[in-house]
Amino acid sequence: SQQGEEDPQALSIQEGENATMNCSYKTSINNLQWYRQNSGRGLVHLILIRSNEREKHSGRLRVTLDTSKKSSSLLITASRAADTASYFCATDLSGSARQLTFGSGTQLTVLP
Amino acid sequence: DADVTQTPRNRITKTGKRIMLECSQTKGHDRMYWYRQDPGLGLRLIYYSFDVKDINKGEISDGYSVSRQAQAKFSLSLESAIPNQTALYFCATSDTSGNEQFFGPGTRLTVL
User: Among residues of chain A, what percentage have pLDDT more than 90?
Assistant: First the structure.
């Protein structure tokens, strides 16, 4: 089964609104990463948060990590139509020789 | 990402045929990965290589083989393709920190 599970599976919002996606995982991690995938294209790395960090910002992105709950959230503020994509969390498991395990993704649609 | 290229981009083949997917990178990274993506399942790791002499099985290696011909090249082979290998295949690279993976544009493979 997948290590990371995103919630919701699909999200539709209006341009300018904030979008929040959640990721839950099962085992101890070194870090957690978020990637974006535009339709049919390769994934692009957005942000990495380490297991000893609780919050991280990058531009309009805010990521939180709660290791006690084994969960993370990705917030995109002031969304734009160009943010329409699938978003995946990926966990770098402790002792995994730095492999990433990807969740099944959240499909975000931002309506103009 | 132009730094990681995959050929072919699309391929239609028949059951039982041998297929090779190729990946090249100009990022100078030691680590290379092959993933497959199926609708609703995120990415699953097939094989990975941490240097030219290193090959490791991932989560779903059965029915696949790989060759790391050089630091810059990592090929994925399907010895005898079957229809449930129809998927989108991605190559990725990372440096030794493994903190961020860089993805190619993907190969869409259809096995009839």
Answer: 74
Asked if residue B34 lies in contact with residue B94, where contact means CB atoms within 8 angstroms, the answer is no
CA distance A3 to A104: 9
* pLDDT of A96 higher than 70: no
Question: Mind listing the pLDDT tens digit for each residue in A28-80?
Answer: 888 999 999 998 889 999 999 999 999 999 999 999 999 999 999 999 999 99
| Nearest-by-CA chain B residue for A6 | B42
Contacts of B6 (CB under 8 A, 6+ apart): B21, B22, B23, B89, B90, B91, B104, B105, B106, B107
Contact B103 A44 (CB under 8 A): yes
Interface residues on A facing B, Cβ-Cβ cutoff 8 A: 2, 4, 9, 31, 33, 40-45, 48, 88, 92, 97-105
Determine the Cα–Cα distance for residues A26 and A24; give it in Å rounded to an integer.
Answer: 7
Q: B87 to chain A nearest CA, in Å?
A: 11
